[in-house]
């Protein structure tokens, strides 16, 4: 059989989500090993520690803590692993907690130690928790490499009481990151591209992507308005599942395309590189729709949704101080470096991106 005909699907082994779900973490950990370590920064520790410690204590497990202090760099991960090995038994279960940084650092430490992995996200700001991918940065916060764990997390525990207290900007970013998945997956499928498990997409992956999009459209506004409440509401629970579970399943099992490719070009402008990942890809999705040749009616509908949520439709909304032709050329040139460009219905050149970005900028002047 031709390898390009092999369907592949992968996922985290277990997923738990709801108010108070942190109470399940001790049981998860006990099923995986005997020496757990919590990897997170001090702010996240203050948020999660009481719940995690109590839950582990109920299983007669004592918990160590490794403090995440900065970016996910090779030096930082090596130092944490040395600390983990120096003091008592080497941890065999890593609880990776936080937004992006704590989770990625925990993944890197787990891989290095050969430990099992439980992810405890404290915001729904990106698709990382269920994924086997993580990112290394250099000392100047430049993307160094996208790394892969040998398998997806053993468990993902999402306590929505933590998430409902996260800043609004992080949730908006998570919405942007998840919104791309159906459209990037569709382009990958059209192009016959491989997913992150090295096979072609499945009916399952396509349907998960469709569900992810449907839930975001239906529930994002109501979920945003519930932020800060003591208890998450039903819309918040559904949106969380879309942003943490469905979004992660969708991209790993479908593939990425143009929206994520633009994260290679946008950082050429420092103000744009500083924007949250989900906002960068939301803008990138707008450019992708232009390249797909979407109708005016479709774009007007998306503009209304973007405005309601607070997603950026233009470079200025993403944070560019001023927009000029040289900036657009530079972003287009950087985007051409992406490995995901082949996941599109036709080959694309730098000039295609320049034209699409200019059309997107022009759209902003028309009433939406
Ligand atoms: Zn993403």
CATH architecture of the largest domain: 3-Layer(aba) Sandwich
**Overall residue-averaged pLDDT value:** 94
**Order of strands in the sheet with the most strands?**
1-8-5-4-2-3
From N to C, what is the helix and strand string? EHEHEHEHEEEEHHHHHHHHHHH
Give the termini distance in whole angstroms.
50 Å
Number of strands: 8
Fold and architecture overview:
It is a single chain. The protein is an alpha/beta fold and 368 residues long. The protein has 2 domains: 15-163, Rossmann fold (3-Layer(aba) Sandwich), CATH 3.40.50.1970; 257-368, Dehydroquinate synthase-like, alpha domain. It is 51% helix and 11% strand. It contains 15 helices and 8 strands. It has helices at 25-32, 42-57, 74-86, 101-113, 160-163, 168-190, 203-225, 234-254, 258-261, 270-273, 277-292, 296-309, 315-318, 325-335, 350-363, and strands spanning 15-18, 36-40, 64-67, 93-98, 116-121, 133-137, 143-148, 155-159. A 6-stranded parallel sheet has the order 1-8-5-4-2-3, sandwiched between helices. Strands 6-7 form a two-stranded antiparallel sheet. Helix 1 crosses helix 2. The longest helix is centred in the middle third of the chain and has 23 residues, at 168-190. The radius of gyration is 20 Å and the shape is globular. The protein starts with 14 loop residues before the first strand and ends in a 5-residue tail after the last helix. The relative contact order is 0.12. It binds zinc ion (ZN).
What is the topology?
Elements lengths: L14 E4 L6 H8 L3 E5 L1 H16 L6 E4 L6 H13 L6 E6 L2 H13 L2 E6 L11 E5 L5 E6 L6 E5 H4 L4 H23 L12 H23 L8 H21 L3 H4 L8 H4 L3 H16 L3 H14 L5 H4 L6 H11 L14 H14 L5
Parallel strand pairs: 1-8, 2-3, 2-4, 4-5, 5-8
Antiparallel strand pairs: 6-7
Helix pairs in contact: 1-2, 3-4, 6-7, 6-8, 6-11, 7-8, 11-15, 14-15
């Amino acid at each position: 059989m031709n390898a390009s005909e092999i369907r592949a699907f992968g996922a985290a082994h277990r997923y738990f989500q709801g108010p108070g779900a942190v109470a399940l973490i001790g049981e998860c950990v006990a099923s995986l090993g005997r020496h757990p370590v919590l990897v997170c920064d001090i702010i996240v520790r203050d948020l999660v520690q009481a719940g995690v410690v109590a839950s582990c204590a109920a299983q007669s497990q004592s918990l160590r803590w490794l403090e995440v202090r900065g970016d996910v760099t090779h030096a930082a991960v090596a130092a944490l692993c040395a600390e983990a090995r120096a003091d008592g038994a080497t941890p065999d279960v890593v609880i990776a907690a936080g937004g992006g940084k704590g989770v990625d650092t925990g993944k890197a430490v787990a891989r290095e130690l050969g430990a099992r992995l439980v992810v405890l996200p404290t915001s729904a700001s990106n698709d990382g928790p269920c994924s086997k991918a993580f990112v290394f940065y250099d000392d100047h916060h430049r993307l160094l490499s996208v790394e892969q764990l040998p398998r997806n997390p053993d468990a993902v525990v999402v306590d929505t009481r933590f998430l409902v207290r996260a800043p609004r900007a992080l949730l908006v970013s998570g919405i942007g990151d998840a919104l791309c998945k159906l459209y990037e997956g569709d382009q990958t499928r059209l192009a016959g591209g491989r997913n992150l498990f090295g096979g072609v997409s499945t009916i399952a992956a396509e349907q998960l992507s469709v569900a992810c999009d449907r839930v975001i459209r239906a529930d994002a506004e109501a979920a945003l308005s519930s932020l800060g409440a003591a208890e998450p509401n039903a819309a918040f629970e559904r949106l969380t599942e879309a942003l943490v579970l469905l979004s992660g399943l969708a991209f790993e099992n479908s593939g990425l395309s143009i929206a994520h490719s633009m994260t290679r070009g946008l950082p050429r402008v420092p103000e744009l590189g500083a924007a949250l990942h989900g906002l960068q890809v939301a803008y990138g999705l707008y450019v992708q729709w232009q390249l797909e040749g979407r109708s005016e009616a479709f774009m007007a509908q998306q503009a209304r949704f973007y405005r309601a949520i607070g997603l950026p439709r233009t470079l200025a909304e993403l944070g560019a101080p001023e927009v000029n032709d040289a900036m657009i050329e530079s972003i287009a040139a950087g985007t051409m470096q992406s490995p995901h460009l082949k996941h599109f219905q036709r080959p694309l050149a730098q000039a295609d991106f320049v034209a699409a970005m200019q059309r997107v900028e022009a759209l902003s002047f028309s009433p939406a």
